[in-house]
Specification:
The chain has 2 domains: 144 residues, 3-Layer(aba) Sandwich (Rossmann fold), CATH 3.40.50.1860; 110 residues, Rossmann fold, CATH 3.40.50. The longest helix is centred in the first third of the chain and has 18 residues. By secondary structure, it is an alpha/beta fold. α1 packs across α10, α2 packs across α3 and α4 packs parallel to α6. Helices cover 43% and strands 16% of the residues. The model has no long low-confidence stretch (mean pLDDT 96). It has 11 helices and 10 strands. Strands 4-3-1-2-9-10 form a 6-stranded parallel β-sheet, sandwiched between helices. The two termini are 29 Å apart. Bound molecules: D-glutamic acid. The site of D-glutamic acid (DGL) has 17 residues, from α3.
Length: 268
Amino acid sequence: MNNYPIGIFDSGIGGLTVANAISRAMPNEKLIYFGDTAHLPYGEKSKDLIREYSIGISQFLIEEMQCKAIVVACNTASAAAYEHLRDYYKGRFPIINVIDPIIESLAANKDLKRIGLIATNTTIESGVYQEKLARRIPSAEVKSMATPMLVPMIEEGYAHDDISHALIDNYLSNPLLQDIDALILGCTHYPMIRDEINEYYKGKVRLIDSTDILASKLMDILEKEEMTAIERTGENRFMISDNNPHFDKSASRFFKESINLEFRNIWM
Ligand code: DGL
């Protein structure tokens, strides 16, 4: 089983930022990425619906693609479906979400007084980050704000330009997000604009996203379970459930190298 692939999924191409971090940290591992572009965006959908999609994708990755572990590379799906998937696959397949590694990393720093959180509407409304932070860092005040326009902006390729500056400024200048010590980039699309957010705060706010932190958590889990790949057995595969040529260009930008997307509609 060690040489079986790792399954990674997101609502679309945002989770490729996480896939890239995993591929850099564990070059021996073969990755199967699934972007549910047929149902994009998850950030505006109900928890029940996202849970249903997440179950279908996990079944596909485990049963058809023979994945040995699943990474939920989407904050919205992590908030809506992680516990269900974890309980269902308990003792059989490790399921890793993008939220817990962020909470653990923040909890290691007891000096944080005000933590900001930006994410999709569904992630913010789920209250999952807020509850976990309150439990692990009770002394910190959490200021959360939905920033739904950032996903379409990033997908359309706006970055380091007037449009992205205006939108980022507009969101981050909200009184809610003032005087924070750290800001959680609670959506797997946001690492694409991490530099611009850092410029906004002039490097004074600690930014935390789920790329490298998640990769290192996944590595720990696979090592502990003695599941790391012994050798690389083939090329990574990248699949999307709705075929749109528009995604091809963006996907390579997110994964930071040229990749081919396969159309695989598991819903028909
Ligand atoms: N990338 C997803 C996340 O991390 C959000 C994109 C969407 O709304 O589908 O929450």
